[in-house]
TrEMBL record:
One of its GO terms (molecular function) is ATP binding. One of its GO terms (cellular component) is cytosol. Gene3D superfamilies: Acetylglutamate kinase-like (3.40.1160.10), VC0802-like (3.30.2130.10). Residues 274-349, 355-416 form the ACT domain. Substrate binds at T47, E74. Its EC number is 2.7.2.4. PANTHER family: ASPARTATE KINASE (PTHR21499), ASPARTOKINASE (PTHR21499:SF3). It comes from Noviherbaspirillum autotrophicum. GO terms for biological process: homoserine biosynthetic process; lysine biosynthetic process via diaminopimelate; threonine biosynthetic process. This is Aspartokinase. It catalyses: L-aspartate + ATP = 4-phospho-L-aspartate + ADP. Keywords: Amino-acid biosynthesis, ATP-binding, Kinase, Lysine biosynthesis, Nucleotide-binding, Transferase. It is an enzyme of class 2 (transferase). The lineage of its organism: Bacteria, Pseudomonadati, Pseudomonadota, Betaproteobacteria, Burkholderiales.
């Protein structure tokens, strides 16, 4: 017998028929002798609908009231799922976040979980009940309802699993796992059986479509084995098979020796590059350029500074394409004259491609293989950045898919 947390996304909860299917699947796990806690999202489209309603009344809705409203979607889900379980003869009980309680800070619409009281839940589980807890929401010290940000139910589920010391957190979703790269770009992309938390974080550009990235950080910090698997399968499929399906997000020490060196190719299409030319090469310059950018809340990713020539250097960095105009504005208005830069240029047609794998720590030659592959395709590398388990290059946007395909093949990722 194990304690297992199931999380179901909006699509899985999308209609009463689907909710009945979720109940069948959950009942199957309970019948097998496990203690089950379910954390569902709102029915698909519901959170959007609620937010749109708010905006009809107040274009920039008050954050506290918005959370009060948006949190109701999950309350509907838990009650319907509980009824679906009761009607097939299971014992079940549903709770809103504040009833558990799931305590958060007071940052409405993007609150962070601080603690979860496990007493009530354990009591119910020991009494043979299936416990259903709203995703996405919590309560602050003042008793106000908070929400965790869009996609936050993933984080709720992992946090509940951590608090209850669950054996595994199963995230049922409309994809069947995490892939070596986006299958829309590489048709023979392969589902990974396991991926480490660190790799999953580095593959955020791919993974974030599957899981709220904060939930992965949470799972890593609290060591919660988390599995992403399909909710579109037959709810009555054999439990053993289901329990081993999807992708397990695991810890490095648990992964096998024979694991491939590279786990995946991540990419981010919509990057922009900015170069500040002819700046004096002296202490404080990087800060003077990037400080105002950070103050404007623009996230900077790759950074390079050239060798200085006659006391002057060029400084290049990338920002998300959607923030390019804002960043340029800041630079032209406040930075350029202040530091005496010769000129500022930019390119909004660049993309980032990364190879990711914990195996890089113990293998050499990954970077050279990556660069050789790109050179064989005639792709020019504009910038390079590395971490212990990732090498990223910035290239012309029009070669992005070619690069992803070539690298996927070069690192044999289509092979199991
Ligand atoms: N219902 C919330 C949203 O749509 C939370 C979630 O689905 O994870 O963002
Ligand atoms: Mg989601």
């Amino acid at each position: 017998m194990a304690l297992i947390v199931h999380k179901y996304g909006g699509t899985s909860m999308g209609s009463t028929e689907r909710i009945k299917n979720v109940a069948r699947r959950v009942a199957k796990w309970h019948d097998a002798g496990h203690q089950i806690v379910v954390v569902p999202s709102a029915m698909s489209g519901e959170t959007n609908r609620l937010i749109a309603l708010a905006k009809e009344i107040m274009p920039q809705p008050d954050a506290r009231e918005l959370d009060m409203l948006a949190s109701t979607g999950e309350q509907v889900s838990v009650a319907l799922l509980s009824m679906a379980l009761l009607s097939i003869g299971k014992k079940a009980v549903s709770y809103a976040g504040w009833q558990v309680p799931i305590k958060t800070d007071s940052a409405f619409t993007k609150a962070r979980i601080q603690s979860i009281d496990d007493a009530r839940v354990h009591k119910d589980l020991d009494a043979g009940k299936i416990v259903i807890i709203t995703g996405f929401q919590g309560v602050d010290d003042g008793g106000n309802i908070t929400t965790l940000g869009r996609g936050g139910s993933d984080t709720s589920a992992v946090a509940v699993a951590a608090a209850l010391k669950a054996q595994e957190c199963l995230i049922y979703t409309d994809v069947d796992g995490v892939y070596t790269t986006d299958p829309r770009v590489v048709s023979d992309a392969r589902r990974l059986k396991t991926v480490t938390f660190e790799e999953m974080l580095e593959m955020a550009s791919l993974g974030s479509k599957v899981l709220q990235i904060r939930s992965v950080e949470f799972a890593g910090n609290y060591k919660v084995p988390t599995r992403v698997l399909s909710s579109l399968t037959d709810p009555l499929m054999p439990l053993e098979e289901e329990a081993n399906s999807g992708t397990l997000i695991s810890f490095e020490e648990d992964t096998h020796m024979e694991q491939a060196v590279i786990s995946g190719i991540a990419f981010s299409r919509d990057e922009a590059k900015i170069t500040v030319m002819g700046v004096p090469d002296k202490p404080g310059i990087a800060y003077q350029i990037l400080g105002p950018i950070a103050d404007a809340n623009v996230e900077v990713d790759m950074i390079i500074q050239n060798q200085s020539v006659e006391g002057k250097t060029d400084f290049t960095f990338t920002v998300p394409r959607g923030e390019y105009a804002k960043a340029m504005d800041v630079l032209n208005k406040t930075v350029k004259e202040h530091i005496g830069a010769a000129s500022i240029t930019g390119d909004t047609k660049v993309s980032k491609v990364s190879v990711v794998g914990v195996g890089m720590r113990s293998h050499v030659g990954i970077a050279s293989q990556m660069f050789r592959t790109l050179s064989e395709e005639g792709i020019n590398i504009q910038m390079i950045s590395t971490s212990e388990i990732k090498i990223s290059v910035l290239i012309d946007e029009k070669y992005m898919e070619l690069a992803v395909r070539a690298l996927h093949k070069a690192f044999d990722l289509e092979k199991a």
